[in-house]
Design a protein that fits this description.
Strand order of the largest sheet: 2-1-3-4-5-6
Number of helices: 5
Structural class: alpha+beta
Strand content: 15-25%
Distance between the termini: 35 Å
Family: Belongs to the SMC family.
Subunit structure: Homodimer.
Order of helices and strands: EEHEEEEHHHH
CATH class of the largest domain: Alpha Beta
Shape: globular
Number of domains: 2
Number of strands: 6
Function: Required for chromosome condensation and partitioning.
Helix content: 25-40%
Protein name: Chromosome partition protein Smc
Subcellular location: Cytoplasm
CATH architecture of the largest domain: 3-Layer(aba) Sandwich
Largest sheet: 6 strands, antiparallel
Bound molecules: adenosine-5'-triphosphate, magnesium ion
């Protein structure tokens, strides 16, 4: 089982300062008043895993994920989130016990991804997590309102979720890539 060891965020939504959150190999509950940033943590995870839709990160454009200032604090020029994952199980296809995945976005729109500190492409991040149960569309992240959304979804969209959970999505994706060459 792959599990999330920690998150480091800077400049992402309400995380104006560098924020480090450790997770244990068990259940972690994050509690706090309304608007204190609980959902921003799951947004940060989805964002690193390659989320491209500003709307599913509850914004209108991607720049909205960058801390946009407050009375006491200037806005940040970029947002950065790093996930540290435990890969002792080797479920993710990189031969390392610990894997870090990082995404950075500048106000001019430039976006960067890193896997174990090496610059990489969005596609490599998505491929790494495809069918691992951890991808941005995976069943492992259930946001507020998601249960209703799944129940009301079109059958094709619901099937997508089931296929990701069953682990057949990567074969479908490879078939599509092969037949389009
Ligand atoms: P609830 O209990 O209502 O679900 P929550 O703890 O999940 O609340 P979030 O939705 O994570 O709260 O946090 C919302 C807060 O994040 C708001 O105060 C909002 O102003 C702040 N926020 C979101 N984007 C930015 C940004 N780009 N810059 C600064 N603050 C931001
Ligand atoms: Mg919330």
């Amino acid at each position: 089982m792959v599990y999330l060891k920690s998150i480091d965020a800077y400049g992402f939504k309400s995380f104006a300062e560098h924020t480090h959150v450790d997770f244990d190999n068990g259940v972690t509950a994050i509690v706090g008043p309304n608007g204190s940033g609980k959902s921003n943590i799951t947004d940060a995870i989805k964002w690193v895993l390659g989320e491209q839709s500003a709307k599913s990160l509850r914004g209108s454009k991607m720049e909205d994920v960058i801390f946009n200032g407050s009375k006491e604090r200037k806005k940040c020029q970029y947002a950065e989130v790093k996930l540290t994952l435990d890969n002792h199980s080797r479920k993710l296809n990189i031969d390392e016990d610990t894997i870090t995945v990082e995404r950075r976005l500048y106000r001019n729109g430039d976006s960067e991804y890193y896997l174990n500190k090496e610059r990489t492409r969005l596609k490599s991040v998505i491929d790494l997590f495809l069918d691992s149960g951890l991808g941005k569309e995976a069943f492992s992240i259930i946001s507020q309102g998601k249960v209703d959304e799944v129940l009301n979804a079109k059958p094709t969209d619901r099937r997508y979720l089931i296929e990701e959970a069953a682990g057949v999505l990567k074969y479908k994706k490879r078939k599509k890539e092969a037949t389009h060459k």
